[in-house]
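Reminder: ligand-aware prediction takes two inputs, not one.
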Amino acid sequence: MNTLVMKFGGTSVGNADAIRHVARIVHAAQADWPQVVVVVSAMGGVTDMLLKGAHTAAEGDGETFRVLAGELRGKHYDTLNNLAKDLSSPVRWDEVRVWIASLVDEFETLCHAVYVLGEASARALDAISSLGERMSIQLVAPYLREAGIPAEPIEATELIVTDKNFQSANPISELTRSRTQARLFPLLENGIVPVVTGFIGATALGVVTTLGRGGSDFSAALLGVALDAREVWIWTDVDGVMTADPRIVAAAKTLPEITFREISELAYYGAKVLHPKTIRPVVERDIALWVKNTFNPSNPGTRVVSDDTAPHGTIRAVTAIRGQTMLNVEGRGMLGVPGVAARTFSAVARTHTSVSLITQASSEQSICFIVPSRAGPLVMDALNDEFRRELEQQNIDRIWAMENVVIITVVGAGMRHTPGIAGQIFSSLGKDRINVVAIAQGSSECSVSMIVDAPDAEKAVREIHKLIEMREG
Ligand code: ADP
Ligand code: ASP
Ligand code: MG
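Here is what comes back for the chain with magnesium ion:
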């Protein structure tokens, strides 16, 4: 089918001018694509505000969410008033104002309930954080319509069916496919552009869920799959996937192409430019995936290409995830004792924490792994419980944590054919006296991760980036 799904992120709908860019981009795409679907995020910063309202209310603060409600109203009204200047129909804009007002009221009501209960359940957090996308479609769709593009706002609760894993819900593909097709095909066949909320879905019974922070990219992929789209374009605020986060490395360059495996590793290890769950669905269906810049649409951006493509270069990009804790289980008594690793990770799993990286010394005297810092204390307790007897008998000498570490990951499919890359990376870090605490190689062999102390992280990223610059230069 000749369907294009385009997703616009928070900055891309962050103010009236950005939404004007979106309208131009959608208009241009319609010249080449008979069927266009638009997915939008909440306006930049809005999801954080909504969650702040919920969390402060849960902590017994009955004021902050009311102040935030005023700010949310102001932000959306300002944008609306600005957009309304371009166009003629005051009636339509009055309707939008009523919509926004009712969604902000819903925010206040939900936060008040959280305040009274003194607790924000995952389900309540989803109901509250879904409001940002529900507001932004009410700005973007009418603006497109007034700009001459037939468009209709659609809440993805009507399309994306998920399980009940609130805050990180998993889509149910068959139901999502049938509901999405039933709801969107009639619009698409009539030349109407659905403007769909990113980030959110609903259980089969209609309870709102969210797909996880940054999940609007994933929404676009899910709709692409459900509609058998030919391409998915992720519009953001940089020229595409870059050799590093441009906020850390000023010399970062856009990569014209990146393989699925490379972008998967980059996304998984912290490159915010694409949500890690976005990639698998589109690879499986052979849907072309592009990352482009809303504010520089003439730049072609980055195309995500098949893993069979001959690898370009060696190190292609470097990324970092902050806010991690490294945990170590160690002891000579562990040597050769079966089951220590299994028990370690079962104990972690019971805390519902996901482990992002594991290394084990070949002597089996220590197991070292990384979890997000907020889960650190919980995991530490679980390990101490699990190995109480071994600790008493000193088969395990100690379980200890190193807080505030950063995972730095170097990505490049060509690395596996090139000896000596790891040596170059470590000597460049060594020169700068950056201490590498642990190392792991990605199973796909296209990434190497290093753990460094938080204060060294930015310097480490810049040093590694110099290796990329040297190769390019
Ligand atoms: P959106 O709201 O459009 O989804 P995000 O803020 O989620 O945008 O992602 C885009 C941001 O990702 C960029 O502004 C950039 O700072 C950051 N980023 C991190 N690593 C990379 C990278 N390797 N390439 C491009 N951008 C990156
Ligand atoms: N608005 C959501 C967030 O900030 C989803 C997204 O922007 O992708 O996490
Ligand atoms: Mg994002």
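The chain is about 45% helix and 20% strand. Residues 3-237 form a domain with the Carbamate kinase fold (CATH 3.40.1160.10). We will return to this case in the review session.
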